[in-house]
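Give me the fold.
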Amino acid sequence: MRCEKSQSQMTLESRSAETVHAHLSCIVKYAESKGKEAYANDDSDLSFEHFFVTCPNCNQDYQGDVKGDMMTTRLEFVEREYKHDLVLYLDALTEKLSHLIDKNHNSLDPKDEHYIQEGEDICSKALSIIEQMKKRSSLKRDETHLIAAANFVVGEFFGKFSSNEYLEKAKIHYERAKGDYEELGEGSKMEVTIMESLIREVVAKLSGTEAELDTAEDLVHWRERYNVDIELVGE
C-alpha cells in the first residue's frame, strides 16, 4: 500500500514489534477497495475480512486503537454496502461486539453509558439478523457456527452486568449458543461444555450461590481449548 498524503501519519505497532507509519484514512480506503474486490471474486485467496484485520505493510493483525477503528470501519462499510449479506453483516457485528467487550477490559458491572448503549445496539442488530437467518429452510454448517458464536458473544456482553435482568439475558443466549453447537455435532463438544459451564456460572449468580466445580470431563475439554489457543498464537 502506497500513501502520498502530507497529513500526519499514525504509528502502527504489529505483534512482531515492527513499527509502520500510515494514515488511517489511507488504510480505510485500501481496505474498502480490496474488500470489494474480494467480495466480488469468490476465488480470491484473501477474504473480505482480511483487509480490515491485517496491515498490508507488515502483514500483521492490527492492534490497540487501530484495531478498534478498523472494526468500526468494517461494520460501517458492511452496513453501507452489504447489509443484504446477512452472514457478512452478522460476522462484522459479532467481531465488533467482541472487541468492545475486550476494550472494556472485561470489567464486571460496567457503568459507562456509551459502552452500554453501543453494546445493546449491536446486540439488537445481531439478534435481528439471527432471527432472519433462522427462518431459512436450511443453514450451512458455517452459518450455524456463526450464529452460535454470535449468541455466545451476546451472552458475554450481558453476563458482565450484575443485574438479574441482564444475567437472565446472558443465560438465554448461552443456552441458545449451546443448542447451536449441539446441532453441529461431535466436533463442537468442547464448545458445548464451555457453554454449560457459563450457564452454571450465571445460574449461580442469579441464585446467589457459588457455581458447581467443573467435572473431570469439563476440565479435559478446557485443557483442549487451552492447547488450541496456544497453537493459534504460536507459543
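Residues 113-134 form the longest helix (22 residues).
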